[in-house]
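Continuing from the previous page of notes. For each protein in this section, the sequence appears first, followed by its structure tokens. Read the first protein now.
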Amino acid sequence: MQVPSTEPDGPAGASEHLLDTVRASYRDQRALAERALAQLEDDDWHVRLDPESNSIAIVVRHLAGNMRSRWTDLLTSDGEKPWRDRDGEFAVTDDASEALLEAWHAGWDLTLATLDGLRPSDLAREVTIRGEPHSVAEAVVRQLVHYAQHVGQIVMLAKPLRGDAWRSLSLPTPRREAPEPPLPPR
């Protein structure tokens, strides 16, 4: 993340600095996930660790649906839109990776465009999510944390699927002399 070139100066400057920092963090999360998604083979998208687990396809579909709902008319309507089918986002389907990526990109583009349109004075405004009031600042941070959690899931699922073909998304993990012991059976 890059530090803004201007120093915060009072509450307005601090709010602008916060917005710049948050915008950069959202972009970093998107880029991290996209570097992982770019390494997937078509079959990797739908692998689930067990019947109760989500595949990468499900996580991507959920994030895209959440973004579309939360960021459409952020300042003027509840973040949980009546047209959203949240439960459907978690259905096991065979959606093509191209369709998933199209929804993913549309969700991120909407999210970032909305964030880019916010002004420091908007941070104290009230919005609702599922009927609960939040300041815009709270809503923005809430979503950043939510997205970061799911981006972590995408990376955690993608890495073992690619095995030795995995290209590190940051500094490579040092090679270990001995393998880690397996987890005990449940």
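Done with the first. The second protein uses the same format. Note its length before scrolling.
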Amino acid sequence: MTILSGRLVASGHTTMKTRTAASVLSTLVSLLLGVAALEACAPSTPARRAPTATAEATATAIAVPRLVYQADWSRGLADWAPTPGWTVSGAVLQSDTGNDRQITLPFRPATPNYAVEFRLRIVNLAPGAGTQYALRADPAAGVDGFVALVEHVTVPGTRLFPDHPHEMIYIDPMTDQEDFGAHTLQIHDYEPGTIWRTYRVEIRGPLATLLIDGRVASWARSTKAPQLAAGAIHFYCTGIELQMSDLTVYSL
């Protein structure tokens, strides 16, 4: 009986161990199957690719102005078709106080968008009214020109009435200028003084902009054509002795 009881007892322990192991194994299998099922149901995440140099290179390039002409008056004015009254001292061009003094650039921009820049200072003024200076481009057939003008230049402190010098830029002929009501002509009071100042005229399509010492002073737009003329460019002055230097032309 003892042996039998021992066998019976041993047999009972063996059965319990076997059932326990089977139960653990079944639980593990269930867990593994559950994890696999969850992974199968989860939405797939697309793989992230590192940015390439090509993608970074798609930024829009900004056009940089390019110097295309620089005046050299030390060689004389033979190519400038000057009227009487102009002289050259080193790299500086100078006018007298006579009337209707003009020079014409021996260079015509080959690009539709361009800028003409120069430095200028007033030395002396003729007595009386009508003193002015201007940079202008002639209109051509079907294409408008422009005039960048400083007028009524007087000596500070000599004005009997509030008659200030003015600066402006306008389309030539003026009838083709875009109408902005009260702002059709952007005329502003301007005191050039006798110091060196930098003038720049930028042409971009039908738009002409005058900048003085790096600041926008006036602008105008043509309604006739999508591009202003790039023909003969003149500098004109009357009743003003002035000096000019560093005349350059840039493509924009």
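What the second structure shows: The first strand starts at residue 66 and ends at 70. The two ends are 115 Å apart (CA to CA). We return to this in next week's lecture.
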